[in-house]
Amino acid sequence: VKSEFEWINRIRAASRRFSPDLVLGIGDDAAILKRPQGKWWLVTTDALFENVHFKVEYTPGKLLGHKSLAVNLSDIAAMGGTPRFFLLAIAVPDGFDEAYLDEFVTGMLETADKHTTVLVGGNVSASQSGLAITITVIGDCSAHMAARRDGAMPGDSVYVTGELGLSAIGLKLLQDGRRLSEELPPELERPILAHLAPQPRVAVGRFLAENRIAGSMIDLSDGLSSDLFHICEESGVGAVITAERLPVFDAGTVAQADLQQEALHGGEDYELLFTVRSEKVAELEAAQAQFPNVTFTCIGRITEETRRLYLEAGGRCELLEPKGYDHFKGR
Amino acid sequence: VKSEFEWINRIRAASRRFSPDLVLGIGDDAAILKRPQGKWWLVTTDALFENVHFKVEYTPGKLLGHKSLAVNLSDIAAMGGTPRFFLLAIAVPDGFDEAYLDEFVTGMLETADKHTTVLVGGNVSASQSGLAITITVIGDCSAHMAARRDGAMPGDSVYVTGELGLSAIGLKLLQDGRRLSEELPPELERPILAHLAPQPRVAVGRFLAENRIAGSMIDLSDGLSSDLFHICEESGVGAVITAERLPVFDAGTVAQADLQQEALHGGEDYELLFTVRSEKVAELEAAQAQFPNVTFTCIGRITEETRRLYLEAGGRCELLEPKGYDHFKGR
Asked: What ipTM was predicted for this assembly?
């Protein structure tokens, strides 16, 4: 099998069609559907499969319900939109724990309520292997105001919200046998929750798009190097990242991990990665006060060298390969 | 695990929310989203899983691509809408046949083009078991003109398009080892194609809704008895079906099967089942000429006895249990 991205590109090329209502199709975090009255619809779909994306043994049902929706809300956030509606397609193995399913629904709907997003349909079927969840979210944004991946320009600053690598470290802790429980040392809770219960940056994303601060934007699902590469590919630019500036999670003695590597390549942080024109940087820095719980960090800049990423560390500059997750190939 | 419908009802009850843009959420073939400018959006999602809904050994890739989209288009047809956009979430096992996937995409896009429906997004991931396909379709209809399940009234005539039981017989033939090939006796091709390549009744559905001929409508996916029960449940009515009127597929010597049972309970015909007020029956019968390839057959009438189905045969009337497919329990 070809790589995931080759296959997506192939489908993308083969499916390109003109439609008066379609502003942007495959290739971004969500599709944009044009409608009159000053609003555009955003639609996105994402799936979580048992033993591929999560294991039941370390994932409480409520958090799985939350995360299944949250990863989709994060895509809407990365467009600068507001989630409105969603559909759930779920496949359940024979004999699956009913209480777990109830918890799943509860967690999903709690998160939906938090974002005033309404479940409007779906599909249930049997599964021959594990639990399989596919959610489609429909959101909207002001016309012409969606933050796409293709708007980065040489000279732009590259920003990221929050900390990087937290989710990857949380996953390692879970794989090492750590669990959310009373016995868990308190300092381990944050990375584990970052992995099991990521918080989509909906309000921040909307703010950055509506004020035209983010020239381009994406959410960090595959990992910084891969997701930055997506922006560079779509925008026809390159980027240089400064290692010392990365908001690396300070794990202390929490985990045996190369924290910088996790920050560069670890997936599923669901933070926002975005580019800012120089004339907009002051506006962004001023906006930091409005979002006291979400740090904006400048980690580098956009360059002219198409599809090339570099990492600057200790004054030296080396090529940075996009090494995020490929669902067909593993790491 | 509870039955599929119990679980759906539970999710439905737990997820009921007010939203000014939402006309109809869970419980019909598609959700209805209200938008100004005289159009409503319709969104629906449906999934096909390998070895649950299909087997690769008897399903050509192109036909699987077609069917994956067609079953969703059928839901839009059953609302009287026009499909516009769709999203594809697909999970692929390691080492899966690449040529088959290419055929899948080709078939899917051919059907999309036939219905001028545009793929606008999606998601690809690995699968630990078989191929898993979830498609979400977004369509629209004229405001207030969607044909819902809850509009049947006592005295209405019950109509169905096409023939019944064809798909179920096709599935039996496939399970008996018959395959689409040059050696296949020509009379077996029609039932097998009905199963592998169902034709969504989009034009008919739209006609019936826009002319307010269908007071209620559903597509036949679970089987006549189950789908009629869905209409009766949502409308608070019952129905009597006349066995002699059923457009049973005349299999001749084709298959050892109880053809009437397949017509009553066999799934996946993707024909339309709809109810017609007495004052609209003449208009429907006159419209038959416009659709020479799709027969409209009156098979019974709606009654006052809530949630009760009866089968009239040879002058006798007996209770008809909804026995369609429950994805959690099998037949």
From this structure: 0.85
